[in-house]
């Protein structure tokens, strides 16, 4: 299990699984924020804090709910539906505790032209 939070800690969560590879998307949103995304089933991510500080941003096709903290602005995860129709969480691994980012395999994704 992995523990994560936004910068100020008002949004805290835990995720089941071991992260070894991440998607590095070059779309206008992901590249500006420096996301490294780990996709898991939605049920694998549990929010362990109040959701009062959680705000949501959508853009483009409005199919992904990008969640961020209204206090510190940090964006730890987003929710959507995968290609197979299953609810998915996209976890920003930069918001997880004790993850060695240099040890992760980065998979480039061309979101800019998709």
UniProtKB/TrEMBL annotation:
Residues 2-110 form the CENP-V/GFA domain. Keywords: Metal-binding, Zinc. One of its GO terms (molecular function) is metal ion binding. InterPro entries: CENP-V-like, CENP-V/GFA, Mss4-like_sf. It comes from Achromobacter spanius. This is Aldehyde-activating protein. PROSITE patterns: CENP_V_GFA. It holds the Pfam family GFA. Belongs to the Gfa family. The keyword Repeat does not apply.
């Amino acid at each position: 299990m992995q523990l994560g939070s936004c910068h100020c800690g008002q949004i805290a969560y835990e995720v089941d699984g071991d992260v070894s590879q991440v998607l590095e998307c070059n779309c206008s949103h992901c590249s500006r924020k420096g996301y490294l995304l780990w996709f898991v089933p939605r049920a694998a991510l549990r929010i362990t804090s109040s959701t009062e500080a959680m705000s949501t941003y959508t853009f483009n096709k409005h199919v992904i709910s990008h969640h961020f903290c209204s206090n510190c602005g940090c964006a730890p995860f987003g929710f959507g539906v995968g290609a197979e129709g299953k609810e998915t969480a996209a976890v920003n691994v930069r918001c997880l505790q004790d993850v060695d980012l240099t040890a992760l395999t980065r998979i480039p994704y061309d979101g800019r032209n998709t």
